[in-house]
Write a structure and sequence with these properties.
Layout lengths: L19 E11 L12 E11 L16 H12 L7 H13 L4 E10 L9 E6 L2
Antiparallel strand pairs: 1-2, 2-3, 3-4
Helix pairs in contact: 1-2
Length: 132
């Protein structure tokens, strides 16, 4: 019996055209906001990042060395925020975007930030930056 690799014999329309890694709803305690009642009081902030990669940076082997390191996103976001306060979600989102956009292989990027505890009648308020 001959084993055919999954990629062989597959219809060309079923070839992946997007290669993406993501970190969803990273929960952060952020000193963020410009209202007097927000300053100095950490608020819950959720960060989601979707990173589209070129094929040269998509893993060809099932190894740690071939992978795109999610820790870079998580620890990078935490490092950007360490000991800082932000007035605007827009400012923090732009800094996260710039940090990841400079990484080799990144061809598309979406960063969203949400404050889930602002209004009792809304799930969240936030911002989204996208290269699309």
């Amino acid at each position: 019996m001959t084993v055919i690799p999954l990629s062989e014999g597959r219809h060309p329309a079923l070839t992946p055209r997007t290669h993406e890694v993501f970190l969803e709803d990273l929960e952060l305690g952020a000193d963020i906001g410009f209202h007097d009642f927000e300053v100095g009081i950490p608020q819950r902030l959720l960060a989601t990042v979707h990173v589209r990669l070129d094929m040269a940076h998509w893993p060809e082997a099932d190894t740690r060395e071939a992978s795109w390191n999610y820790d870079f996103i998580r620890t990078g976001i935490r490092a950007l925020m360490d000991g800082r306060r932000f007035n605007l979600q827009e400012t923090l989102a732009q800094e996260i975007f710039d940090m990841i956009a400079g990484k080799p292989g990144v061809i598309g990027l979406t960063v969203s930030l949400r404050k889930p505890d602002v209004y009792p009648d809304a799930r969240a308020v936030g911002v989204l930056l996208s290269s699309d």
